[in-house]
Amino acid sequence: MPPLDLHVAVFGASGAGKTVLLAAFYRAQTQPSFQQEYAYKIQAVNKAQGNRLLGRFYRLEEGTFPDGSTRFDEIEFDFFPRDLPEPAVRIHWYDYPGRWWEEEPVDADEREAMRQGLLRLGMSQVGILLADGAKYRSEGTGYIRWLFEHFADECDRLRRTSAAAGEEVSFPREWILALSKADLFPPEYSARDFEREVCRDADDQLAKLCAVLRAEHAFGHRFMLLSSVAAPPDAQVDPRTSLGVRTLAPAVLVSTVEGAVREAQASRKEKSAKETFFQGLRDLMQFVDSVDDFLPKRYQIVSKILRFVSIKDFASTRVDRLKKAREDAIRRGDTFKAVLTGMVAALRDDEGLRAYHQNQ
Ligand SMILES: Nc1nc2c(ncn2[C@@H]2O[C@H](COP(=O)(O)OP(=O)(O)O)[C@@H](O)[C@H]2O)c(=O)[nH]1
Ligand SMILES: [Mg+2]
Q1: How far is CA 310 from CA 112, 144, 209, 281, in A?
Q2: From the CA of 65, which ligand is nearest?
């Protein structure tokens, strides 16, 4: 069976930390110690691209940060279970240049790149909006309000200009709001604290952004802290420390399943408003053989995911139980169950609990 395709669209203004994040994401998950602890590993589908990412990371280790890029970047990663030869999950990562959100395309080439990029957007199950941790640290709430307003305006503008050109932009419906450069915050600061501050201080702007994205239920519920490299002011860069980069793929996986459940619930008119995610999930599992018929294309991988992860695994907060299921799966050579339960376990470990928070 081919790997499960997850498409994730990453947005953030220039300087927010997207390029460094991509290098850190790859580097952290290629470490032997990572494979030992998480029982899966990453590989770049295109080896040359993988080497470029590692090169970028090694330069970071020497204190050289990447040049700002204004290109749309697309890269694919496979996740393999430890000791098994086939990948179970493929993540397609789309890096949207901040400039697209600020200016009109400079020429026909850029216009075409943008068109291609927006098509990818329609396949993406999850969007990540990166808030610049350094700016939030220095400017406070005003920065978050600005970010939401600015992003809403720009999404609106993209939608209108595309519609005028006869193309409909379809934004992801599941979103993660991620705070970059989390190393600039105190060690006890967590995604839950970030969630509290955002909902307390920027709820009006959040509501407006949800309306523009048409993602009422799916923006403003998932929060992450990310640190690609620890670079405290006036101190040496320490690229061995990172936060949340290993939580990212699991968060995307689980958000995709949640998106499919929500999609299925919305398509059933008789659903009661109070139906929970788990009731919805249980339902989806019951109809797993026919869900592809009514789910939009980007969610059709979910029927496969649900064949390998039980509700118990999704709901379980017990890392030891999940790790045992994962190790059993590796022993049986069950590629998909091994990686999927491994990812759910990664969301529940100490790093996952600090770096990821979902409020509903
Ligand atoms: N403290 C800290 N600084 C970071 C981190 N990631 C990026 N930076 C800083 O932010 C700058 C911009 O990052 P970059 O990834 O190029 O931003 P992009 O324009 O969104 O791709 C870098 O040159 C670093 O100085 C991080 O995890 N921690
Ligand atoms: Mg960049």
Answers
A1: 43, 37, 34, 10
A2: 1
pTM score > 0.85 for this model? yes
Per-residue pLDDT reduced to its tens digit, 326-360: 999 999 999 999 999 999 999 999 999 999 999 87
Centre of ligand 2 to C-alpha 112, Å, is 19
The number of helices, as runs of H, and strands, as runs of E, in the chain is 16, 8
Q: What per-residue string of b and e applies to 41-69 under the rule 16 or more CB within 10 Å gives b?
A: bbbbeeeebbeebeebbeebeeeeeeeee
Q: Say how many residues make up the chain.
A: 360
Using CA atoms, how far residue 313 sits from 16, 173, 318, 343, in Å, is 34, 24, 9, 11
Q: What is the pLDDT of residues 82-100, one digit of tens each?
A: 999 999 999 999 998 877 7
Give yes or no for residue 19 CB within 6 A of ligand 1: yes
Q: Which residues surround ligand 2, an ion (CB under 5 A)?
A: 18-19, 69
CB neighbour burial string for 282-312, b if at least 16 within 10 angstroms, e if fewer: ebbbeeeeebeeebeebbebbbbbbebbeee
Kindly report the protein residue whose alpha carbon is nearest to atom 1 of ligand 1.
231
Q: Could you tell me if the CB of 181 is within 6 A of ligand 1?
A: yes
Complete domains list, the chain, with CATH? 4-244+353-358 (3.40.50)
Residue minimizing CA distance to atom 14 of ligand 1: 17
DSSP class of residue 322?
H
Judge if the beta carbon of residue 66 lies within 6 A of ligand 1.
Answer: yes
Ligand 1 near 24 CB (within 6 A): no
Q: Which residues contact 261 (CB under 8 A, 6 or more apart)?
A: 277, 280, 281, 284
